[in-house]
Design brief:
Number of strands: 6
Shape: globular
CATH class: Alpha Beta
Structural class: alpha+beta
Largest sheet: 6 strands, antiparallel
CATH architecture: Roll
Strand content: 35-45%
Distance between the termini: 31 Å
Order of helices and strands: HEEHEEEE
CATH topology: Thiol Ester Dehydrase, Chain A
Number of helices: 2
Radius of gyration: 15 Å
CATH superfamily: Hotdog Thioesterase
Strand order of the largest sheet: 1-2-4-5-6-3
Number of domains: 1
Helix content: 10-25%
């Protein structure tokens, strides 16, 4: 990985914005193979107001969404340059498992690997870790479609 993927670069690649941009940095990226991304979980996240006020826990669906966003960066950087105008749409998830709660102050690490890559569909296996302990895993599918 030669390119720096800080939040500014990530925002050039993903359409998501606050409060729905759920990755802060790409730590490692091998196009066509894998991505490792980081999310700093802060008590200031808007979802903690209601999930849950006396015991703040990051919603599992947002952990999977962060995983999907990291996978979106991997899919985008894997595409040939001429296809990078296409949007990548989250299409499905299988074998989702949540193992431990994610709390304010945690640093969430997403690791995704491409399982299958076709011209219009990509399938990835993703895991989320906090302090090297797996907190979630899933198989994710995305559709690579034209920007319309």
């Amino acid at each position: 990985m030669k390119k720096v993927y800080d939040i500014v670069e990530i925002m050039k690649l993903l359409p998501h914005r606050y409060p729905f941009l759920l990755i802060d940095k790409i730590i490692e990226l091998e196009p066509g193979k894998k991505v490792v991304a980081l999310k700093n979980v802060s008590i200031n996240e808007p979802f903690f107001q209601g999930h849950f006020p006396k015991m703040p826990i990051m919603p599992g669906v947002l952990i999977i969404e962060g995983m999907g966003q990291a996978g979106g960066v991997l899919a985008f950087e894997t595409m040939p340059v001429e296809r990078r105008v296409d949007f990548i749409y989250f299409m499905g998830m299988d074998k989702v498992r949540f193992r431990k709660p994610v709390l304010p102050g945690d640093q969430l690490i997403f690791q995704l690997k491409i399982i299958k890559l076709r011209p219009k569909v990509v399938k990835m296996f993703g895991e989320a870790f906090v302090s090297e302990k797996r907190v979630a895993e899933a198989e994710l599918m995305a559709s690579i479609g034209e920007n319309s």
